[in-house]
Amino acid sequence: QKEKANIIFGLVLIVICIFLYQQTLRFPTYYRKVGYGPGFYPKLLIFSIVIFSLVLIIQSLLNLSKGFNKNSNLLVINNFKSLSIVIILFVLYLLLFSSLGFFVDSFLFLAITMIFLNMNFWKSISIALIFSIAIYYIFASLLRVPVPTLVNFL
């Protein structure tokens, strides 16, 4: 059951990545004088997600063919209902991104998703907060990419 859910999850992620990749084609990937453009990082992320999704699918297929089902310490989406809810949360994340801004939207998405997947409440909040701050800092300060914030929309 877990392996089938992982295969479905991997396939859904690949389909989402194809859609997202098409959206990034409008962004310049490279500027001659400056270096990497705004399209580089999203394409890199999408490529990485596709690779990890393929690995998940291949591992699940191998485990199904062996009849082997090992338990792991990783967060596992183990049924279709959970997969559906995570996809709905992701769609909500995308829809609310421009109105809530990156930091608030990312924090809520990460925290709610991890709590839903039965991770410890405080650990989920901590990881979501640290990750959201780190990514915001990387984009806004280091890469100087304009990141939507809640203040922009009040």
How much of the sequence lies in strands comes to under 5%
Give the N-to-C terminal Cα separation.
46 Å
* Amount of helix: over 70%
Overall pLDDT level: 80
Query: Looking at the structure, what is the overall shape?
Result: globular
- Global Rg: 17 Å
Structure overview:
The protein is mainly alpha-helical and 154 residues long. The chain is built from 5 helices and 2 strands, in the order H-E-E-H-H-H-H. Strands 1-2 form a two-stranded antiparallel ribbon. Strand 1 and strand 2 form a beta hairpin. The radius of gyration is 17 Å and the shape is globular. The termini are far apart. About 4% of the residues have low confidence.
Question: What is the fold's blueprint, element by element?
Answer:
Elements: H1 2-24, E1 30-31, E2 35-36, H2 40-66, H3 80-100, H4 102-116, H5 121-142
Antiparallel strand pairs: 1-2
Helix pairs in contact: 1-2, 3-4, 4-5
Main attributes of the structure:
mainly alpha, two-stranded antiparallel ribbon, 2 strands, single chain, 154 residues, 3% strand
Overview in brief:
This protein is mainly α. Helices cover 70% and strands 3% of the residues.
